[in-house]
Amino acid sequence: MHKWVVVFLAVVVTSCATPYRDVDASQPYSTLSFARGYTTGTGFGAGTNQEYSLARAGVCENITRAAMFNYLTGAANDRRVAAGEPVHLFANTAYSASSGAGGYVTTTIQWCVASATFTPEAGRTYRVIQRELALAACRLEIVDAATGTPPADLSITEGSGCLPSGEPVGRDR
């Protein structure tokens, strides 16, 4: 029963975003390679969902889901983005835990959120991961896959971002 409550919550939380549409391969593009960055939060009464979203501007509008990871998914997810244009990226990891007895269930949800902006170069691949440091503590990392270094103009704000629904969360709310 608890497992289905967590699955239901995961579907509701993640169904609000429009899927991202890759830039046409005939246009100059960069690749964002999204990876699952958490290891905890699976099992009876627990669940974790991680989602990466992109927006046309650095606000919580016109958000599209670039990648999503949960207990059913785990492989890296590559997306083509326009080269030479700023990328506005939001990362969030939701940790949920349910407990209870006697017909009463309590569900707690904790979030890691971050936002980032940078301008990708044509032909480059960037690894994107919101790495779990501890339960509900994460760090967003974006590096050039060939060099292992972050883009020169990368700006990351931990603890502030947008949920897939477009709702701002964190200290900039």
Brief write-up:
This protein has one helix at residues 2-14, and strands at residues 18-19, 29-35, 46-55, 64-69, 77-82, 87-101, 104-118, 125-134, 137-144, 155-158, 160-162, 168-170.
Q: How would you explain this protein's 3D organization?
A:
- The chain is mainly β.
- Helix content is 8%, strand content 51%.
- The chain has 1 helix and 12 strands.
- The strands form 3 sheets. It has a 6-stranded mixed sheet, covered by helices on one side. Strands 5-2-8-9 form a 4-stranded mixed sheet, with no helix packed on it.
- A hairpin with a 2-residue loop joins β6 (87-101) and β7 (104-118).
- 31% of the residues are buried.
CATH class: Mainly Beta
State the separation between the terminal residues, measured CA to CA: 34 Å
Please give the CATH architecture: Sandwich
Count of DSSP helices?
1
Average pLDDT level: 82
Present the secondary structure layout.
Elements: H1 2-14, E1 18-19, E2 29-35, E3 46-55, E4 64-69, E5 77-82, E6 87-101, E7 104-118, E8 125-134, E9 137-144, E10 155-158, E11 160-162, E12 168-170
Write a concise keyword list for the protein shown above.
mainly beta, elongated, 51% strand, six-stranded mixed beta sheet, single chain, 173 residues, disordered N terminus, Immunoglobulin-like, four-stranded mixed beta sheet, 12 strands
